[in-house]
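Lecture 7 notes. Example A: sequence first, then its structure tokens.
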Amino acid sequence: MFLATVHFTQQRDCILRRLTADVDTPVPIEIEEIQDGFVTFVLRAGPHADAFEAELDAADHVRHVQRLDTDNLLVTKPSCGAYSAIYRNHGTLRRSNTVSGRQREYNVLVFRREDLRAIIDDLEAFGTVTLGKLKRFRAGSDSLLTERQREVATEALARGYYDWPRKITNEGLAEELGISRATLHEHLRKAERTLLSSALTDDHGETTSGQSEPPRP
């Protein structure tokens, strides 16, 4: 299993590209769900929330915009292609993905090198890709999880929550586990954060930098 940082320059027109073109710092995005060509995500808009909300609400192709609090928006819109390329090739987006005009940074978890190669090939059809870091997950990292986190994450994987297309929605998975959607997200996010922290601090993992593609197996 590998964690890759992918830097992507988007060539297609996209509302997020227009929204963030003049913003000084990259805007974080947290993916909630990708289904039937639509992506739902939390846009950490910060002081730009009012302007972003107005423009997203006025866009015909944006399906849903909801103000979560002062700084954050929940958005559902058609995927511009990058998210679909990642998920259909068995990748999973981690937290701390960012957008800044044409520039995107994705933290992607893949099980095999060939999956990462396929993701990069698909992305290169409509943009420029540079692979930043590639690290192997340390064996036994899941032992760092609590019993409940491991149970929820294992059930999510087994039920196809991380498949593309997703075989079960977050609502369906929460119902299967007998917990609320908010509790489901809390367990999964904590588990993902723990595994990410373990991977990023593992000095024995392998790292590559500045390459446009991963090393061949």
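Example B, a different protein, same format:
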Amino acid sequence: MAHFPVNHPARPLYRVFSGLVGLYILVFGVWGVFETWGQPLFGRGPNWALGLRTNLAFSLVSVVFGIVLMIGASRRSNLGHHMNLAAGAVFLVTSIAMMAVLQTTANFLNFSMSTVIVSMLFGLLLLATGLYDKVGTDEHAEEERRRREHPIAEAGTR
């Protein structure tokens, strides 16, 4: 059974990390939209924004993802937890899929290897932040802290 730490002491730091990732993706998307405006949606031109290759479709999706991640980072509920887990999985799956079709015409998001690497890093970072930013009641957090400090005493009572 998966165990997600509840009310982790570094939760605000993890929310800052996911917010920074969301901010970078939003700025990248806006910059990419300005760079690729008027070109085909799935164009394969030499357009770069913030060091990553892009096209209009990828830039528009990045704007949406950036906004969603920043909303999730700004909430103090489990919404951010679930959004970060889902976004991390999406980033990892997308980067692996785009790496598989990098040198083919199926590369419809105009990825380069640097874009694949950054997407994988962002996916891993978002998964990590999603694992540690779960919010729970104070009683649940106290029970978990007690179990961490005295694991043998808790095991004997089961």
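Note on Example B: The mean pLDDT is 87. DSSP finds six helices and two strands in the chain.
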